[in-house]
Design goal:
alpha/beta; Heat Shock Protein 90; 3-stranded parallel sheet; 12 strands; about 25% strand
């Protein structure tokens, strides 16, 4: 991989060029390669998917500083499957030693699929976000963010249909002087994917939305709300998406097993799809991966 910044979509596009069914992977990083927090979660999702198939994966050219240290610190190297190796670098376990020390970063958190609902994940994410906000909006933002994160995490537990845990993470970025700070939040699971669980249920109930094509159905789910468990159960992601619309410079991205979609505010309100990648442009990857991005101030 070349040097420079990669967001989740850019990393996904690069990996989709080299990941082949039934084959292992050797990934080489540039000396100045940098990944956003959502890209880190996407990388971990690929490592999990390939590792679960027993395929050998090697990560090369990572040092104890720069990207290697960052991946270690945010938790990408935690509990990797035996077939995944970091060549030439012994992870230092920084994710445990330094977790929670940055005001602008919530390292990758595992979302348990079973057992009692754990409110602490949503509390940590919303608390981290509120700590970076202006004092006059801190409390309101914390309440809104908690509701949003709790809904997304609840969706992972309800709809994943996978025994593997989900992931959540957050980072606040301070760009060059004069630019707004940007927030990137990612919540992902390793399940069947929202379309694979939603469409069969709609068809079984003879709901008219079941006949929509994939992109139209996703757009309906984001803007209007729909669920295989009924209309009321489908409002979680819709309400979270609507809350995002009220924030500056919002952008919503979704990765499914065979599709990558970007949603942005439309001229008539709600969202429109501004980018979609399917077919050979996206390698198979289990799960539903949501990314929320917006300007903090």
């Amino acid at each position: 991989m070349n040097s420079g910044w990669y967001d989740a979509g850019q990393l996904d596009g690069r990996l989709s060029q080299v990941v082949r069914g039934g084959q292992g992977l050797a990934l080489h990083f540039g000396q100045e390669t940098k990944l956003t927090i959502a890209a880190c979660v996407r990388l971990r999702a690929y490592l999990d998917a390939l590792g679960d198939q027993g395929l050998p994966v090697e990560l090369h050219d990572l040092a104890t500083w720069g990207l290697g240290a960052y991946l270690d610190r945010v938790g990408v190297f935690e509990q990797l499957t035996p077939s995944v190796s970091v060549v030439g670098l012994e992870p230092a376990g920084q994710s445990q030693a330094r977790r929670g020390q940055s005001e602008a970063l919530e390292e990758i958190v595992r979302i348990p699929i079973s057992g009692p609902m754990d409110r602490s994940v949503a509390e940590r994410l919303s608390g981290k976000l509120a700590a970076c906000a202006l004092p006059q909006v801190r409390e309101a933002l914390a309440n809104t963010a908690f509701t949003c994160f709790a809904e997304l995490i609840g969706n992972v537990r309800t709809h994943s249909a996978s025994p593997s845990p989900g992931y959540a993470a957050l980072q606040v970025y301070t760009p060059r002087q004069g630019s707004r700070r940007l927030v990137e939040v990612v919540v992902a699971d390793a399940g069947l994917g929202i379309l694979q669980t939603l469409r069969p249920a709609l068809l079984a109930k003879q709901a008219p939305q079941g006949a929509l094509d994939d992109q139209a159905l996703l757009l309906y789910a984001v803007n209007s709300g729909i669920s295989r468990h009924g209309e009321e159960a489908g409002c979680g992601i819709t309400q979270s998406a609507k809350r995002l619309l009220r924030l500056p410079e919002p952008r919503l991205e979704l990765r499914l097993p065979d599709m990558r979609v970007r949603f942005e505010p439309g001229p008539a309100g709600g969202y429109v799809i501004t980018q979609a990648r399917t077919g050979a442009a996206v390698a198979p990857l289990p799960g539903t991966h949501w990314i929320f991005r917006y300007a903090l101030d």
